[in-house]
Amino acid sequence: MPEPTVDAYLEAQPAAARAVLARVRGAIVKALPEATESISYRIPTYKIGGRMVLYVAAFREHWSIYPATDRLLAELGDELEGRLHGRGTLRFTYDEPFPAKLVARIAKLRALEVAEREAARKLPKKRASRR
Asked: Do 91 and 24 contact (CB within 8 A), yes or no?
């Protein structure tokens, strides 16, 4: 059985969703040229250095980007007003103007979060001093 691809995912969507998701994909790839794309949890996933940065998914009435972290919400709060649904999901409708700059900012901020988390993991652990 062939490995699922982002191209196959897009092709399986209705025309309106496919057109918007192609723009989402383009905005993410432009913002994160080092990212690789794959399918994880049956939706497009963007990774840097093997670490997940973003998920994107199509639904009947909207498309979503995950995860909407606390930092992302704090830094882009006003721009994301009314878009947060559930825990960590940003929702956009197909009929609204495509927010290319916002998608790019979300992607770059998530990539920064992932890079900072990776850098923190690589720091040597401090030993408790014995006195």
From this structure: no
